[in-house]
Specification:
Elements lengths: L2 H14 L7 H48 L22 E5 L6 E5 H6 L1 E3 L6 E3 L6 H6 L1
Antiparallel strand pairs: 1-2, 3-4
């Protein structure tokens, strides 16, 4: 039984008792039923508001997903606009680098290479990386 149905049943029971309207107990019972009725209306209003808000949030979420799809390019791997020099099929690339000072072999990720520098974890020498785009060579041919 839902709240509104239970409240109607309670009102029917109270009316069926045939209580004297002038007695204090009757007034208290009727006041309690009125408060319960107001609470039930408030809950119904809040439920409707929450359902409407949930629909609006879903719409915003869908719009945000569209904006993310438009702005975020999953195939972005390098700074140039060509498709020739970037291996866009690899999601995560690692590179082996040898420190010219101490000879330590270091594995760095693509973001580190694109950043340009990193200190050698072995000796502290700053290693610099230059990203060359093969597409510039293709334009000269």
């Amino acid at each position: 039984m839902e709240t509104t149905e239970s409240l109607g049943y309670l009102k029917g029971l109270l009316d069926g008792l045939d209580l004297d309207d002038n007695k204090k107990e009757t007034k208290v019972f009727k006041a309690i039923v009125d408060v319960l009725s107001n609470l039930a209306e408030d809950v119904d209003d809040m439920t409707e508001g929450m359902e409407m808000l949930a629909e609006q949030i879903d719409a915003i979420d869908e719009d945000l997903a569209d904006v993310e799809d438009y702005l975020v390019d999953d195939d972005f791997d390098c700074d140039c606009d060509c498709d020739d020099c970037c291996d866009c099929d690899d999601e995560y690339q690692e590179f082996e680098v040898e420190c010219p000072l101490c000879g330590a072999e270091i594995t760095v990720d693509e973001d580190t290479v694109l950043n340009g520098t990193i200190p050698c974890p072995n000796c502290g020498e700053m290693l610099e990386f230059e990203v060359e785009c093969d597409c510039e060579d293709d334009d000269e041919e």
